[in-house]
Amino acid sequence: MGPRVGEWVHAAPLAEVRRRRRLAVTVAGRRIALFLVGGDVYALDDTCVHKQRSLSKGAVLNGRVICPGHQWVFDPATGAVEGRDECQPVHAVRVDGDAVYVAVPPQGEEP
């Protein structure tokens, strides 16, 4: 299942995401990790579902996000974990000019 779309909220300048390749931001009180992968921007909850490590401190390798805790490998588009049943929450992303927007789920709903 893809991310739920609620309200679009400005998350970061695109130039900053391009420069850093991965970036932790707070959107509507939620810690989000932004990743630039293959020219596209993806947004996942920054706290890993496995060991609660910060995904934004991990790496991007071969189009996948690698958690710095136990090297779990995430698909940035779906949040799926390779070889596991767990799934990292993902958020819809929209780029408008030099601004990156993340969809905040409707009140009381998970992405």
Automatic annotation (TrEMBL):
Give this protein's Gene Ontology molecular function annotations. Answer: 2 iron, 2 sulfur cluster binding; metal ion binding; monooxygenase activity; oxidoreductase activity, acting on paired donors, with incorporation or reduction of molecular oxygen
Do the record's keywords include Metal-binding?
yes
Matching entries from InterPro entries are given as: Rieske_2Fe-2S, Rieske_2Fe-2S_sf
Alphabetized Gene3D superfamilies for the sequence: Rieske [2Fe-2S] iron-sulphur domain
UniProt domain Rieske: residue ranges: 9-102
Q: List the keywords (alphabetical).
A: 2Fe-2S, Iron, Iron-sulfur, Metal-binding
Where is coiled-coil annotated?
none
Q: What Pfam families does the entry give?
A: Rieske (PF00355)
The name of this protein is: Rieske 2Fe-2S domain-containing protein
